[in-house]
Design goal:
Alpha-Beta Plaits; disordered N terminus; alpha+beta; four-stranded antiparallel sheet; two-stranded antiparallel ribbon; about 210 residues; single chain; 5 helices; globular
Length: about 210
């Protein structure tokens, strides 16, 4: 190991993380946080199975959508020149999830992207920063599925490229790990028809709320 492999901190020399070791650390932290959330799982499940816990205040507490499940939300911000290779990562990621994650309890997956705005609180502003924001959202029925996701992710064919992007100068990443879903609506939960797509003939496909 050369001196370039170390960073000085006070009188101690500590090894810097390679992308591979960084990946192991990220996966390890994710598993640790997911495991730590197991206490939350049982408590949240007990609350989510209750009907109208706060009827006097008019708060609807019957579980809807994905409430009571667990989410991983990644916010990745990359330089615009890395957009194409980042899109490629999510192409590989989606393919891997589609082929493997059914038995692991994944119930939802989405990736959204747009240019980063200099003033995000002003929708009329058109000034951008030169970076792209990606928001990746996955939902699992249980934490065991999330644990399986992390343990198998090195076989997904995307991790090395993902870590390269995460650690590139000028990029940033933030991950919300194993978080209970507290608010959610699916089309069946809404009080109005929800349009989700149009087919080639232009006919709208939509869901209506199921009434008992």
């Amino acid at each position: 190991m050369t001196s370039k492999d170390y960073k000085e901190k006070g009188n101690e020399a500590i090894p810097s993380l390679s992308r591979r070791n960084f990946g192991k650390a990220v996966i390890g932290v994710g598993l640790g946080l997911a495991a730590a959330a197991t206490g939350v799982q049982s408590a949240f499940a007990q609350g989510s199975n209750s009907e109208s816990l706060n009827e006097k205040e008019g708060v609807h507490t019957t579980p809807e959508g994905y409430e009571g499940n667990f989410a991983v939300c990644t916010v990745l911000i990359v330089k615009e020149e890395m957009e194409k290779e980042t899109d490629c990562v999510w192409d590989k990621h989606k393919k891997w999830l589609r082929e493997t994650h059914g038995p692991w309890g994944m119930v939802s997956y989405s990736v959204a992207k747009n240019k980063e705005m200099k003033n995000p609180l002003n929708p009329a502003s058109k000034e951008t920063t030169g970076r792209i924001i990606y928001v990746i959202h996955e939902i699992y029925r249980h934490l065991d599925g999330l644990t399986k996701h992390y343990s198998e992710s090195p076989n997904g064919g995307y991790v090395e490229d993902f870590l390269k992007i995460c650690t590139a100068e000028g990029n940033s990443v933030m991950v919300l790990q194993g978080a209970p879903v507290t608010h959610s609506l699916l089309p069946k939960d809404c009080d109005f028809p929800v349009t989700i797509a149009q087919n080639n003939e232009g006919v709208e496909k939509f869901f209506k709320k199921v009434t008992k």
